[in-house]
Amino acid sequence: MQIRSKSNQPLDPTDGTELPRPLATLQMLNQVARSLGYAEGPGSPFIAVTEGVGTLLRADGVAVLVRDTAGGYAFRVAHGGLAEWNDYTLSGPACELLETLYFRDQVTVFKRSQRSAWSREFLLAAGMNWGALAPIRVRDQNVGALLVNNRHAVHVRPEHIEAFENLATLAGVAVQEERIREGLEDLFMSVIVSLTMALEAKDPYTEGHSVRVAAYSEAIGKQLGLPSATLDMIHRSCLLHDIGKIAVDETILAKKGRLNPLEREKMDMHVLIGEDILRPIALLHPLLPGVRHHHERFDGTGYPDSLKGEDIPIEARIMAVADAFDAMTSSRPYRQQIGEEEALSELRHAAGTQFDPRVVAAFEHIYPAVKRTLENLRPRVDEASAAEPAES
Ligand SMILES: [Fe+2]
Hints:
- The chain is α+β, with helices and mostly antiparallel strands.
- It has helices at about 20-40, 45-55, 95-105, 115-120, 160-200, 210-225, 230-240, 250-255, 260-270, 270-280, 290-295, 315-330, 340-350, 355-375, and strands at about 15-20, 60-65, 75-80, 90, 110, 130-140, 140-150, 155.
- The strands form 2 sheets. It has a 6-stranded antiparallel beta sheet, with helices on both faces.
- Fe (ii) ion binds next to loops.
């Protein structure tokens, strides 16, 4: 393939920086292709690709743009001089050009000095003078583009363009892999959430408990100023927090009155069992700390690890407050529910011992609004027996 600029003139092959030789290029491609299958963590398949592009074109800035359903192009990962564009989505003329790129089906190279639409829209950082775009396709679908920005023009030969196209193909594999992973994760989440709901629905005392804990916890997190990705993680952790109870004997779960020490031990195991159930799915690993630690206490006397203060993950500190409040204001086989004012006062009383005081304060702030949205999710049971301390 010949390299052409927007004006359709072959690029001057003699200007700029020297790029890797063919063997080094091939080794780089092999390395990227191999690392795709092993990469873990958010964005990591793309990181292998962008690092490869960085090596190939001595790039000062590299980004993977992924087309969204509305036709915008989101910066899925952006490095170097383009890092500030992370999480930004392009719209307007830039998207029209990217649609053209897909139909042209070839790498487009552009320079600042050409003053073309390409250089205007895609030389995105200050001081960048040379750029290249490769379309990313998955099974003939336009899924995005690989973007490079350089301060100086580079000496690109046909094999570099071919390697750049290969990296765009690998980026397509990464997009596809991410979609499959997300699909699997959603499927697994929905199975687990259905199991939790089924577990709760069997017992009218706990019906809707996890959904309410999730709503309270997400609102608390928002009040504390946590980022949206953390709020999403908290919401999901809450929906699954008691999944380990699936392995606890029903006679223990439904027992009226206090649990004896052996029963208590079995009940407390639900946090570890829950963690074991979720651990096989790597993408659910961010949810494990909340599941494991939601019965820790701020003063270090909780379980399973007796963590103290801010050593307890924030999602677990939040969940502890939401969980206890919902337990106190719902009837359980072993005790009568208490009124919300009394429950709030219990939380205040236990701030600094059982609970993180900041989380309790945030809960008091968000409770009235969240309560209104949850009215129709309250448990149906009103009868109960003697009052006991809160237990989820
Ligand atoms: Fe629990």
